[in-house]
Specification:
single chain, mainly alpha
């Protein structure tokens, strides 16, 4: 699956992950970046 993530989608992803932990969000963002 090729997923293109827009800034809005990334923001929603980050907010969702922030519910579990900011460190986890950073790891996810780096993975997509």
């Amino acid at each position: 699956m090729n997923i293109k993530i827009s800034e809005d989608t990334a923001a929603l992803l980050i907010m969702a992950l922030n519910n579990k932990g900011k460190s986890a969000a950073r790891v996810a963002v780096q993975g997509f970046g």
